[in-house]
Design brief:
The complex is a heterodimer of chains A (289) and B (362).
Chain A lengths: L2 H31 L4 H7 L15 H9 L2 H32 L5 H10 L5 H13 L3 E3 L2 E3 L7 H4 L6 H12 L3 H9 L4 H9 L4 H17 L3 H6 L8 H4 L10 H21 L1 H11 L4
Antiparallel strand pairs in A: 1-2
Chain B lengths: L1 H40 L18 H7 L1 E6 L23 H4 L12 E7 L5 E6 L2 H32 L6 H9 L6 H11 L6 H9 L16 H25 L4 H9 L4 H12 L1 H16 L3 H6 L11 H11 L3 H27 L3
Antiparallel strand pairs in B: 1-3, 2-3
Helix pairs in contact in B: 1-14, 4-8, 4-11, 6-8, 8-11, 9-10, 11-14, 13-14
The chains are: A mainly alpha (289), B mainly alpha (362).
């Protein structure tokens, strides 16, 4: 290889690595800092030691973070809320998409158009009236009758089950499936639900993965605006709201970094394992409309 | 036979409705209903919990938020007719209070507060008054945030996409790294950067001092009205640029290789290839990227909530943050709804603009 080409190649890699450092270093800093006592943490931040696990390394921040806040509880809440929402969303949204694509019924066109139109309504613009709605909705649960949904799990789950993007992703995917499959099983005497359950869903692996990843990111990562308004009792709080615990009295940055690491590393690992699917899912949100 | 056919259609009608109904009902109750309620509530004085009945107030909420007034002031003059000068040599102006608390002489300025002032020629001073200064700042900051973040983030994302699109060994590793912040919660990112931006022990100050050999003076990035919003912008770009890189990338990959070969045979330089082959094919991707970034920018919230809570001196207020402060913290549902309606109108106008831009080509 000629010299000028080698130099060019080296420069390109240098640029790529330099940019990669901008993205990695803050994350690395978070993880490394979570292992250091506060005093050393603050001293180290004035040198490159900030990015190295050197000095007095321990998991003390983690144990004291667990002492300070019911972290297991928050993680349990977040995982449960996110999990139930994903499962219900996949089921109900794919079911309605199935109906939109394969069945003929009165008013279908209008209903689908209305659902699609909600694309351009960001959650932020409806949060306040929604607060008024859930504040006045009745609920019958294990604890008996309640006149409001405030301070509960379901107030964090039910409003997020159905959304236009998930329905639309399934509709797009179903449209590309061969119609003959449906016709054939109908002639064989299958009910519509059986067609959905036995023919269409087994073919929908990729889109189920995409929709699940998107819902996961939307739910787990964005649990802030809504829980702030509807969950005052810590029993029902998700991880992102649990952060408030660490800003009472004196702020211990080491503990905060430990907490951030705990709630972020699982997502990052998940991403590293499934990175192709993650990136494809995000790219698919760009194709909407 | 016709009876059977009618029956089959009816059955399909029923099956279709039943299957679509649960999801549609949820979308209706938790999306469409609150959406229309926002419009209705913004015209009332509804509170979250109130002993008094709700009243229709027309556009009062919007007048409260958007009311502004312009006040031009002459410098104070002393008995001899000379302009009064303060210790620093600047002319002295009358107090704004004299105008805003005088309902009889200046009803148009009554109860308004100073938003900002601009010096005019001949020592005149233009004072812009607003009914609701905090809201005005929130609106201004949100628009400014969108205006600055949009081109920078889109530009960086395109640069990254072009870098990643090269046939180099191990390029996927870099793609994975550049995209990583996208999967991290904005709440986590905001807290992490709050520490990085810290004025006393922050990493950013330390690094800047190290690289400038001690010349750089520490800045309290989030505690300073001049740097707080730019700091939030920079962090938001860091978090979101990977997302848009991926969208650009999928646009880049739709360009046939043959186009590049033609350019190569014609002897085009690298810039010419980009300018005349790559860029024209990216038109729709460009519009899409811009629209998505603008929409995300309009709904700026977690950064403000976690990092600054609107401060210092309202320099990082945002529309959504104000909607939450009013609608939830002050339990003023109507005020929060009015902000929501304005926010939606902003989003809608961007969306219509996109439609217009992409339709033109057909």
């Amino acid at each position: 290889m000629p010299v000028h080409k080698m130099v060019g190649l080296a420069l390109r890699y240098l640029l790529l690595i330099w940019i990669a450092m901008i993205f990695i270093f803050p994350i690395l800093f978070m993880v490394v800092s979570s292992l250091k006592p506060d005093l050393q943490l603050l001293m180290d931040s004035s040198s490159l030691r900030a990015f190295l696990p050197v000095g007095d390394i321990s998991f003390n921040n983690y144990t004291s973070a667990f002492d300070r806040a019911p972290i297991f509880f928050f993680i349990f809440n977040s995982v449960m809320i996110t999990g139930i929402t994903i499962v219900c969303s996949l089921f109900l949204c794919s079911l309605s998409a199935f109906s939109f694509v394969f069945l003929t019924w009165k008013g279908k066109g209008v209903v689908f158009a209305i659902i699609l139109a909600t694309f351009i309504v960001p959650f932020e613009t409806i949060a306040i009236p929604l607060l008024l709605i859930v504040n006045n909705l009745p609920w019958i649960g294990l604890e008996g009758f309640k006149t409001s949904w405030i301070n509960s799990y379901h107030v964090q789950i039910i409003p997020f089950i159905a959304d236009a993007l998930t329905i639309f992703l399934f509709v797009q995917y179903f449209r590309d499936l061969p119609k003959d499959l449906v016709e054939a099983s109908r002639i064989d005497g299958a009910t519509w639900f059986q067609v959905y359950r036995r023919v269409i869903i087994p073919l929908s692996g990729p889109i189920v993965a995409t929709a699940a990843i998107l819902k996961f990111l939307m739910m787990y990562n964005n649990q802030l605006l809504w829980p702030i308004m509807v969950v005052q009792e810590e029993t029902y709080r998700p991880v992102m709201l649990g952060l408030q615990y660490f800003f009472q009295l004196n702020t211990q940055w080491g503990e905060i970094m430990a907490y951030l690491t705990i709630i972020t590393i699982p997502v990052l690992l998940f991403y590293l394992v499934l990175q192709k699917a993650f990136i494809a899912s995000i790219a698919s949100t760009g194709i909407k409309g | 036979m016709p009876n059977n056919k009618v029956l089959a259609i009816r059955r399909q009608n029923f099956a279709g409705w039943t299957m679509a109904l649960p999801a549609c009902l949820l979308v209706f109750t938790f999306l469409i209903l609150p959406f229309f309620m926002a419009f209705g509530l913004s015209l009332t004085n509804q509170r979250l919990v109130s002993p008094n009945p709700t009243e229709f107030v027309g556009f009062e909420n919007f007048q409260q938020m958007l009311g502004i007034g312009l006040l031009t002031m002459e410098p104070d003059v002393d008995d001899t007719g000379n302009i009064k000068i303060d210790q620093e040599g600047n002319p002295v102006y009358p107090r704004v209070r004299n105008f805003t608390r005088n309902q009889d002489d200046y009803p148009q300025y009554f109860k308004k507060r100073e938003w900002f002032r601009i010096g005019l020629p001949n020592d005149k001073m233009l004072v812009v008054l607003a009914q609701d200064v905090v809201f005005m700042k929130a609106l201004f900051n949100t628009l400014l945030f969108a205006l600055i973040v949009c081109p920078i983030q889109a530009g960086f994302a395109l640069g990254l996409a072009l870098l990643i699109n090269q046939p180099l060994r191990g390029i996927n590793i870099f793609r994975t790294v550049y995209f990583a912040p996208v999967v991290i919660s904005m709440v986590v990112v905001s807290l992490l950067w709050r520490f990085i931006y810290d004025g006393q022990n922050g990493l950013l100050n330390a690094l800047l001092q190290m690289f400038s050999l001690g010349l750089f003076e520490s800045v309290d990035w989030l505690g300073n009205t001049a740097t707080a919003l730019p700091a939030i912008m920079a962090m938001s770009i860091w978090q979101g640029v990977g997302f848009h890189m991926v969208i650009w990338l999928s646009g880049l990959q739709t360009i046939p290789i043959s186009h590049y070969e033609v350019a190569r045979i014609e002897g085009a330089t690298r810039w010419q290839t980009f300018r005349f082959v790559t860029w024209p094919s990216l038109r729709n991707t460009a519009i899409l990227v811009m629209v998505i970034i603008t929409m995300q920018a309009f709904t700026l919230y977690p950064q403000v909530q976690v990092m600054t809570r609107g401060g210092p001196l309202d320099s990082t207020q945002s529309l959504v943050f104000q909607a939450v402060v009013r609608g939830y913290e002050k339990q003023d549902i109507s005020g929060g709804s009015a902000i929501s309606v304005l926010l939606f109108l902003l989003v809608l106008s961007i969306s219509l603009f996109q439609r217009y831009l992409t339709r033109e080509k057909d």
